[in-house]
Structure formats: structure tokens, C-alpha cells
Amino acid sequence: MVILGASGDLTKRKLLPAIYHLERVRRLPARFAVIGVARTPQDDEGFRAHFAASLREFAGVDAATDEVAGSLASRLSYLSGEFDDPRLYRELRERLDQIDGAEGVLFYLAIPPNVYGTVIEMLGASGLASSPDKGWRRIIVEKPFGSDLSSARELNRLAHRHFDEKQVFRIDHYLGKETVQNLLVFRFANGMFEPIWNRRYIDHVQITAAETVGVERRAGYYERAGALRDMVQNHLMQLLTLVAMEPPTSFTAESVRDRKLDALLSVQPLIEGGQGLEHVVRAQYGSGWVNGVDVPGYLEEHGVARASTTETYAALRLHLDSWRWAGVPFFLRTGKRLPKRTTEIAIQFRRPPLEIFRRVSPSPVTANLLVVNVQPDEGISVRFEAKLPGMRMQLAPVMMNFRYKAAFGGDVPEAYETLLLDAMLGDPTLFSRHDFAEASWALITPIHEAWASGRVGTIPQYEAGEWGPREAETLIGAEGRRWRTL
Ligand SMILES: NC(=O)c1ccc[n+]([C@@H]2O[C@H](COP(=O)([O-])OP(=O)(O)OC[C@H]3O[C@@H](n4cnc5c(N)ncnc54)[C@H](OP(=O)(O)O)[C@@H]3O)[C@@H](O)[C@H]2O)c1
To answer: Which pLDDT value is given to residue 360?
Structure first.
């Protein structure tokens, strides 16, 4: 595995701990080695010290005494150089040639998006993208994959100039989460949910990805991204398609990805001819209190322009043109500095057609609800009505909960572990295909264009620690629904 960007945050926080955990459960190939590449000058020992620091901080492991860490460390090496310098790639090639018996090479682009193009081009030009006699070559590209439709197309075009689509793995770590994969099992390995998974029984769907953190130290990136690019175009669109897709004919990468793409293509364009902005709300957090801490507003954060219009919150109302979903709105929301860190999908069912308990029970019947909790407490819950014990006929909603940790124990693999292993095995089911990335940008880019055109008024604010702006309540309220209280 070649990590390009080996001195960065992602490598330290996610990749090195994931490699360690994979080795600990003996899932890595016997002849596995890592070559780290970045500009920072350091030698192999320096990179090994970086690995030890990463394990200490993010895996709670002391590399000095841990046998697995020690054995892995001996297989780490490091190359420094500029990413546009052909010499770096010549040296990389020599290093790879020295590693005997490797089945293939996985290049991981853990670098800033503006360097993706250079590295892909240089890997291609130096002949590293293919090696018929020396095993497979694959490349993992981190998010964000482009910043709009034309840049995503350009990146796909460049990648396809040097790599087959089969070699390209566009990562969306949400797809590596257990609950997200379980959604496929839940829907397509059980006979009882699919018959009611449609417009006849489902009233609407809400997908929420809430963060308590602010922009932290990532203002440089976030100012150019915003919530729509950072969360909606990738993670929330993936979740939406897993809920909305038709059953694939088999559990193969192309069958699953074809059906997801169909679902995405059935989403009605949000903006057409400049119309449709009433389906989208954006906002920025002001100062406030989150988890008992007094926090500054977005415009006061370090590295944020004082007149910034970057959205830290977005809510969307989507309609899908399909027989299954016609008339069922999908509401998506995401934001920073919200009261709670949680990601969930809520399927709100219709009320029973006849309320026969209306006269006897003082409380109205609550409609059924199915909640897929993606993080942090991974699980699935169903809400249904029950009779309260006692002489009177009184109803109350109760929850039936399945929790991953309680059912199967604590060891749920991290998303990056699952995805790294899949990429090594050449299974792209949980990665975005080129057409999915473009179709998703085709929905999102017109919103950015409309916002940039200046036809839209000032950006609304919400108090840090609140559930977003009033405009988001109006967006969902206009359809006679309410956001769930989480
Ligand atoms: N951090 C996360 O948790 C996270 C999560 C999801 C996605 N990502 C994505 O993963 C990629 C890497 O993110 P990161 O947080 O690890 O970034 P980072 O901390 O800034 O690291 C970037 C890495 O790329 C190297 N690099 C090479 N050319 C560079 C250039 N021209 N400018 C800046 N750095 C350059 C840096 O090392 P040298 O300076 O030594 O060359 C460093 O190793 C990004 O695409 C990001 O969007 C990160």
C-alpha cells in the first residue's frame, strides 16, 4: 500500500490505526508493506515514530510493547519529495520493485483535492498505474471528489485516462459503517419490510447528519466547501439511495451500484431555470452554547472571512420520480454546532386508515416509525403503539430497539478498516462509481450556482446549540410535517 499524504491528518487519525487493526485480526496479506509518501523530509524511522504516535493517540496502543505494531512497523518505509517531480515516482517504482511477492499495489490519495490531478497524472505518466506482470494496481481517491459537476467530470476523465474504472475506488466512509451496510441486509434479506417500503405505507423520510463540532481548524477547507459539498453531495445522497433503491438482482457491485444510480437519477432536479430554491435552506451558526460550552459564531472562527456566506447548515426537500416514491417527500438536513452528534434515517409511516380507538383513548394514535441509527449508537428501532397496562383502553407509543453493541458485542470494525480491505480485495460495492459522483453533483451544482448568482437574500443564522434555523421548520412545515426531535 502506498499512502500519498503520509504525513497528514487522515493518515494519522484513520489509515494507520485501520491498518493496525486489520493486521491484528489477521486480515492483511502475509506480504503486506506500506510506503508512505509526502513532502515533509523524514526517514523510515521518522515514519515509524509517526505510526507509533498515531497508534498511541487513536488506537490506545503502545507500539513499543505491542507485537503486532512492532511487526507492522518493520514493514513501513517512507519517501519524501514533491508530488510533481518525476524523480519521486522513479524512486517509488524502485522501492516497489524491491518488495518481492506483492500481489498488487493500492495507492491511497490522502492528499488535498487540488493535488489529486497532479498525482494521478504522474502515476500514469511514470507507468505506475498498470503493471501486467506485477499484479493489480488500484487507487483510492478521498472525498471531496470534485467541487462541482464540471470538476468531478474532469477528475473522472483524468482518472480514466490512466486507470480503468475497475481500478478506481472513490471513498465515502459512510458506506463502510456497519449500519449503512446493514440497511441493505435489512431491506433485502428480510421478507417483511419490502412490501411496505413504498408510497402506500410511507408518509415521508427524514435523513439527519448532525454534528456538535464547529469548523475547528479546517476553515481553509470548509470555507470553500460548506455543508452541501461536505455532507450532502456524498454522505446524505448515499444514504438516500440506499433507502430509495429498488432491490438489486444480486449482491454484486454493479447490480447494487446500478440500482443506487437509478434512485439518484429519479430525484427531481432541485433547481430548474433558476426556480426551486424554496426546496433548499442554508444557514450559518451564530454564537451559543453547545454541551455546556460557550462557543463563537462561524464568522468569528479563526480563518473564516468576516463576510463569508459559506453554509454550515443545509436542509433539502426532495421528490423522487418513481412508482415506489411518487408523492413521498425526502427531507435531508445536516449542520455543525447542533445540539447532538447523531446520524439517522427515519422512515415515517402513514397512520392507520381507520382510528378505531379514537373515542376510547385520550391520546391520539402515533404513526409507526422506523429509525436507522447510523452513528454514534448504531442500531435500528421501530416505534409502534401499545396498550398501557390498566383498566382503561389507553394507547402509548413504545420502541423496539436493536443495538449493534448489545446484540453482537463491542467490536464493530471502523469504516476505514472495511473499506481498505474491500479495496485490497478488489470489491467496489461500497465505493462510489463515476456516474454516481456526477449524478450527485448534477443535483447539487445548480444550488451553488443559484446561491452564487446573488439572487438569494442574506444567509440565515441559527444559534449554536439549536436545531438549525426557523427557515428549516418552514421548509418541512409547508408539507405538513415536522423535524424529529433527536
Ligand atoms: N482528516 C480527515 O479526517 C479526513 C476525513 C475525510 C476526508 N479527508 C480527505 O483526505 C485528504 C487528506 O486530508 P488530511 O486531513 O489528511 O489533510 P492534511 O492533514 O493537510 O494532509 C495532507 C497531506 O498531503 C501532503 N501534501 C502533498 N502536497 C501537498 C500540498 N500541495 N499541499 C498540502 N499538503 C500536501 C501533506 O504532507 P506534506 O506537507 O508533508 O507534503 C500531508 O501528508 C483530503 O482530500 C481530505 O479532504 C480527510
So the answer is: 83
